[in-house]
Design brief:
Length: about 180
């Protein structure tokens, strides 16, 4: 079989989306950093192919593969918006008080992370999230980074507090 399906996955704005999932009749693949994918050893016929990536709406398109030919199909995924929320407070693990010196909580996503600055009471929030699992990291000057993984259902609100240890200044041995 010399038949293949290839293509690219882009954001709606035209940016290449690496690590997007490609599913075709039970087979799976992942796009390269430039959004490219290729499915080899495909029998002639018509196929439904789905492209998906966290933070984007999945898209399914149909392509017909002819004998001894390569079929090409590209996807342009719109960003996903949901109704879920994650919020919480960053605390000083030593005193138990909210961190009031500022800082950021980072929601790790495959393409572009989301950032929430702490308010003066150490609170943060992320809104309009799609129900899914998320990795989060704190970045607060003078504190060790906090890390968490949280699952939030569609339309739900989850609270994720962080208790960050202060970083003690270390004097070099030469004074």
């Amino acid at each position: 079989m010399n038949e293949r399906i290839n293509g690219h996955v882009y954001s709606e704005g035209g940016s290449a989306l690496g690590s997007a999932g490609i599913a075709c009749n039970g087979g799976k693949s992942v796009t390269l950093f430039d959004g490219a994918f290729e499915l080899e050893n495909i029998a002639p016929g018509t196929y439904s192919i789905t492209a998906s990536l966290k933070g984007f709406k999945s898209q399914t398109n149909t392509v017909t593969v002819e004998k001894d030919r390569t079929a090409t199909i590209d996807f342009y995924l719109p960003q996903a918006a949901g109704t879920s929320k994650i919020c919480g407070t960053v605390y000083d693990a030593g005193t138990g008080r909210p961190v009031a010196s500022g800082g950021t909580v980072i929601l790790i996503l495959p393409v572009a992370n989301k950032y929430a600055n702490l308010d003066k009471e150490g609170r943060y929030r992320f809104i309009n999230l799609v129900g899914d699992g998320y990795n989060m990291v704190t970045s607060v000057s003078g504190y060790e980074d906090g890390k968490a993984t949280i699952d939030v259902g569609e339309g739900k609100k989850e609270i994720q507090d962080f208790h960050c240890k202060p970083v003690l200044p270390v004097e070099p041995p030469w004074g």
